[in-house]
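User: Before I run my own analysis I want an independent prediction to cross-check against. Here's the chain; please return only the structure tokens and, at the end, one sentence I can use as a sanity check.
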Amino acid sequence: MQQSQESNRTILLKLLLCFVVYYAVAFAFAGLLVGIFDLRFQGTLPFEFDIDFKTPRSTAAWLCLVLPQVAEGFFIGIAYHHQPRQWDYIVTMALCHLILSCLVLQQGPTQWPWFVTFIVCQPVVWFLAQAMATCFKPARVQQTEDV
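Assistant: Structure tokens:
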């Protein structure tokens, strides 16, 4: 029983680290995109649902949805390359981001580009995490016997 509680605590701490890294990267990208697109920073850009590509703000919101998720894939792949079930972290982060975005904006997503981007990004993030995990796994050392 003690071991399962410790592993649950470890998983929650790793998930908390994922949240901190994800939102640090999201707000860093939001700051860059505000400067690039000459927008007013409101603090809600990482949570925006209004993606129609008709205004600079909606394009910045789309980029602020995609870029942190890509960075998340790299982070999870590198930091948790020894974890066999990285998709758990990816799906949990995606669902929590959706819930947090709904809470921050007090509305849900209504436009199809947001849904398509969000759904397509999850397998891409998983693929990136798997690719990074493969790159960072220690190579097996072949033992040669001296005869």
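Sanity check: The chain has a mean pLDDT of 89.
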